[in-house]
């Protein structure tokens, strides 16, 4: 790192020019990145194969339908001439739009589309492509055609896509929520630094995120893995968090060196030399942790994993080059622009007192932290990974009103998760539909004898389940359909595919956990030259993720928070993508905090040989840094939770809770308490382990002032390796 620092300072003009060029290109290319991304998810499953075949032959019939709930005026039924004319008019509107398909009483004659008492009926409309909603102008035109032909009729539109989008109510975009988060981050940074230095981490974050977008654009040309548009949001969020973390550490260390009397150039080089190792090491672990998502055979997660390999690396590279350049050229002048009274960068009084209290009573602190984590992890073990019920997708709005009307008229909500079945030419659609209708969890099976639904070599019938496919209430509807349908039939549907994705994720989550834990342990063991510290770090990271899962269960699955904060009832389950992404995000961010704290603890221990004193110094100097970084992420995520989509709300609240729990309970309470309790065992690295890790074992030391816990844990002949911080 010494040579790297010297290189950056020696070639600072060329380094600055390079980053300006990259930033300009990033600004120019950012609008074009989305055009290179592909929606949808690729998996190795029968449902994916079926959906691809359906898309090729029948357009978006595997998509979730937009459902028109038609309320009929008094004295009319679906068999009334005016009603038949209105439904036929709506059918003509849909038929005029290429690749839009529809099912109604007019083209199926199926009574499962008629409500209780015959006073209402449904029209199912399917988009040209799975994953896209039916254009609103199409459903509006169909509704107008019905109300024009049938005076007094009412038409309401509902569907999973409409409910997920906020029920038709207006809502802010993800971009606007992130901008709010950046504004809140600036407020916190201004409080932390009390000067114009607050803008440096944000400058670093902006350059990092733009560079990451450029890297994603390049990835789309060199990999066959489809990168989902949601990756842009994940990159922006994680890039913001990591960039601010790394820049905070460097700027804070630069201030310490300046307060110690160093000139500006020396302070910049020393901050790079001392804090740079922590930044680079933390980025390496976070990159490999995210890259481990590649082991899960789901294209969405593999795209995140592929992109995640570059997110922490780019954030670290920008922090290690741009921040020193800005500090060397304008750091002192920016620090003189005061926003409040300047505080010393030395050990904070509050954090010193807190650390001393933990050192005096480490068992009490560890027990308190373990109790909080244990309680939350207990709830986390009950997590139900399934799609949320449709009744919890939107608290209000036109789509929610349409859902209420649909259920009031006797239709089950499972209709919104319809299941297309593609039959070969030799199969009789009517006979197969009759067989499937007899299944206990089927509300009906629709057969339309029209060219849109029947080709020369195949046909499609549409199953209407009573229960919502993909949710925890689905029951055995999918397995029943697969067992009863002809062996060469293709059973598709977006929610059937989501069911298969859920099964894959549940199977691969332990593998992902094992891979990330092993890689993290090996890297930490090499970096810290210890076996106990990395084992503790990995265990606490797993517990931290488990606690975040527990918060998700409490807030969303059980509804202790979702109803109060957003008016959304308990979902009964958590969207399967959320736990996976939460795992990758928290493992990366929490490892930052762990490395930042332990690096300072190790630095103090190497200087004094006193574990207890090292803990006090490490926490007193990093406590404010870690909690400030966590607060910035927490506020950014909290602002994101106001987005209309329930899955984004889940992800934002889970990440926000996880960051807060990790920073407050794990890193500033449990970590120092356990380091004190483990005593000298923290620094022990046997010769066989050093050989296996391909590092040199450190020389043995014998400090007289080691803490009182040593004799209980380790013989005094252990090794104490140096840790670069």
UniProtKB/TrEMBL annotation:
Transmembrane segment boundaries: 12-30, 178-200, 207-227, 233-251, 279-303, 309-331, 364-383, 505-525, 537-558, 625-643, 655-678
UniProt cross-references to Pfam families, sorted A to Z: MMPL
Subcellular location: Cell membrane
UniProt keywords, alphabetically: Cell membrane, Membrane, Transmembrane, Transmembrane helix
GO cellular component, one term: plasma membrane
This protein's name: SSD domain-containing protein
Domain of life: Bacteria
Source organism of the structure: Streptomyces yokosukanensis
Stored InterPro entries: MMPL_dom, Mycobact_MmpL, SSD
PROSITE patterns: SSD (PS50156)
All residue ranges annotated as the SSD domain in the record: 203-329
Membrane topology, from the record: Multi-pass membrane protein
